[in-house]
Amino acid sequence: MMQIEKIKYRDWNTAYRCMYNSVELIVVTEIGPRILCFRRADGSNILFEDTTGWASGDFKLYGGHRFTVSPETTDTYEADNTPCEVIRGEQSLRISCPVGRHKIQRILEIRPCARCGGFELRHILRNVGDVLWQGAAWGLTAVRPEGSVIVPWGLGTDQWRINKICHWASIGDFERCVKSSLWHMTRDAVIVEPNGEKSKIGVYSDRGWMALSLKDSTFLKYYDSAASESLYPDSGCNVEVYTCRDFVELETLGMMQTIYPGDEKVHIECWCLKNEVYSRKFLDNMALHNTHNGSSS
Known about the structure:
By secondary structure, this protein is mostly beta strands. The protein has helices at about 235, 280-285; strands at about 5-10, 10-20, 25-30, 35-40, 55, 60, 65-70, 85-90, 95, 105-115, 120-125, 135-145, 150, 165, 170, 175, 185, 190, 200-205, 210-215, 220-225, 240-245, 250-255, 255-260, 265-275. It has one domain: Distorted Sandwich (Beta-galactosidase, Chain A, domain 5). The longest helix has 5 residues, at about 280-285.
């Protein structure tokens, strides 16, 4: 069973600790919601937490995992600095942020995931206005710039297919050459190895997972990959990786959808920590073929 406990966390007076299979997830509800800690009970936090107070206007970095919307516009960076409503169930934690300026409410629901042994994160977009809204859910997880990020992008068969990688040639006032030492591509995966450069890439992956391979464990993010490439934002990307000096973002995107007034759409991620450490040779050979699609409603 998942244990849920209301706690103080660092400088935050209101946070909730979710414990399941000896793995701890801490979400702060004075803002966000933001998941600021994910670790084994006796381990170190794999998420990045900002300690500098960085801000751009009303938007503050904070770090950790945040839930926003795509395509990337000013709505993506709508400030999440106000307290959330929390409903604590026996085996669930439901955190609702205040309604945004376009009457779209973001709700994060955390449950145990029996399939992967970790946590199910339900990212819910609810239209509380009186006009249609179109866009996609976007889950961004900022981790410390360590290890290797693995994004599988092929089935590993002899079938004809096209592997496409989208490269952000310019990020704000910063330009990045496509010939970067950050990543290399195997037949079945893109492997990103952070080196302090600012860069971003995106792919469409039908495998339903991405991973962060660390020196003593592997962080796996599973997501629903049932839809076709054409239904996703950013030229068909459902997985993106952003890197900079201080952190790396592991990003998944939901389908572009029209949400009618009174309706809601759900984008699901499932998180787990594995004890296995995947070597470079292991990754290059793509022996990792575990898939997991979250249920949707």
